[in-house]
C-alpha cells in the first residue's frame, strides 16, 4: 500500500491508473477510522480495481466554535488499518496542499444543505462539497463511497455530482452500529462511559420509531413527539432536531410513506454533537 501526500503526485497517479483502464474507488474520510469507514473500504474493493482512502481533517467544514482543533488525529494507526483492510493508496495531504495561501473557491449546494444540520452548522456543507469536489478532481474516482450515517451529507454530495455532471458514481454504505446500537462515529471517542450510555438512547429512540411505523403509525407528529420525549428522558442529552424527511430531497415529510423517508436526529451529549438516522 502506498501513501501519498502531494496533490500533484496523487492526481498524476490517478490519471495513470485511469488511462490503464483501472476502476478507481475513493473512500473520503477525516481519519480516526472505525468499522464504519472500514466497511466502506470493503464496498469500494468489491466495485473498483484500486481503492484510495483519503484522510484529511478538512478545516473548511468546521465552524469557528467547533471541534476542528480537538478532532482526533491518529494517522499511523489509520494507515495500518487501511493496509490491513486492503486499500491500495492512502492520500493524506496537508492543509497547505489542499488550501494553499490565497485559496478562495467554494462549492455551494443551496437546497438540500439548508435544513437539518445546515441550520445550526451554516457553513458545514459548503466545506464538505468543496473538499469532496477537490478530492474527486485529485483522485478521479469512478465510484466514491460514503456512509449512510451522514444521510444529509450523502444527499448533498449526490446532488452536487448530478448538478455539476461529475463522472463518478456515489455509493452509500449502511450505518455500522456497536453492540449498544450506537452508530459508529469518530466523535464517539469524545464520550465518557456515562455520556455514551445516555447517547445510546438516540439509536434506541430511532428503533422505537421504526417499530411504531411497522405497527401502522402514520402520523409524523406522533413519531417526532415520541422520539423527542424519549430523548428528553436522558439528562445529558440536548435535542437539536428530530425530523422525518424525504431520503433524497431532505424535505420535511407531512405523512409517513414507508420506505421513502428517514427519521433524522441530532443531539448534544453534553459537549459532543451526535447525529443518527434510520429509514422508516
Ligand atoms: O464524512 C466525513 O468524514 C467528511 O465529511 C468527508 C466526507 C470526508 C469530507 O471531509
From TrEMBL:
<keyword id="KW-0436">Ligase</keyword>
<dbReference type="GO" id="GO:0016874">
    <property type="term" value="F:ligase activity"/>
</dbReference>
<feature type="binding site">
    <location>
        <begin position="147"/>
        <end position="150"/>
    </location>
    <ligand>
        <name>ATP</name>
    </ligand>
</feature>
<feature type="binding site">
    <location>
        <position position="61"/>
    </location>
    <ligand>
        <name>(R)-pantoate</name>
    </ligand>
</feature>
<feature type="binding site">
    <location>
        <begin position="30"/>
        <end position="37"/>
    </location>
    <ligand>
        <name>ATP</name>
    </ligand>
</feature>
<feature type="binding site">
    <location>
        <position position="153"/>
    </location>
    <ligand>
        <name>(R)-pantoate</name>
    </ligand>
</feature>
<comment type="subunit">
    <text>Homodimer.</text>
</comment>
<keyword id="KW-0963">Cytoplasm</keyword>
<dbReference type="InterPro" id="IPR003721">
    <property type="entry name" value="Pantoate_ligase"/>
</dbReference>
<dbReference type="InterPro" id="IPR042176">
    <property type="entry name" value="Pantoate_ligase_C"/>
</dbReference>
<comment type="similarity">
    <text>Belongs to the pantothenate synthetase family.</text>
</comment>
<comment type="function">
    <text>Catalyzes the condensation of pantoate with beta-alanine in an ATP-dependent reaction via a pantoyl-adenylate intermediate.</text>
</comment>
<feature type="binding site">
    <location>
        <position position="61"/>
    </location>
    <ligand>
        <name>beta-alanine</name>
    </ligand>
</feature>
<feature type="active site" description="Proton donor">
    <location>
        <position position="37"/>
    </location>
</feature>
<dbReference type="InterPro" id="IPR004821">
    <property type="entry name" value="Cyt_trans-like"/>
</dbReference>
<dbReference type="InterPro" id="IPR014729">
    <property type="entry name" value="Rossmann-like_a/b/a_fold"/>
</dbReference>
<protein>
    <recommendedName>
        <fullName>Pantothenate synthetase</fullName>
        <ecNumber>6.3.2.1</ecNumber>
    </recommendedName>
</protein>
<comment type="pathway">
    <text>Cofactor biosynthesis; (R)-pantothenate biosynthesis; (R)-pantothenate from (R)-pantoate and beta-alanine: step 1/1.</text>
</comment>
<feature type="binding site">
    <location>
        <begin position="184"/>
        <end position="187"/>
    </location>
    <ligand>
        <name>ATP</name>
    </ligand>
</feature>
<keyword id="KW-0547">Nucleotide-binding</keyword>
<keyword id="KW-0566">Pantothenate biosynthesis</keyword>
<dbReference type="Pfam" id="PF02569">
    <property type="entry name" value="Pantoate_ligase"/>
</dbReference>
<keyword id="KW-0067">ATP-binding</keyword>
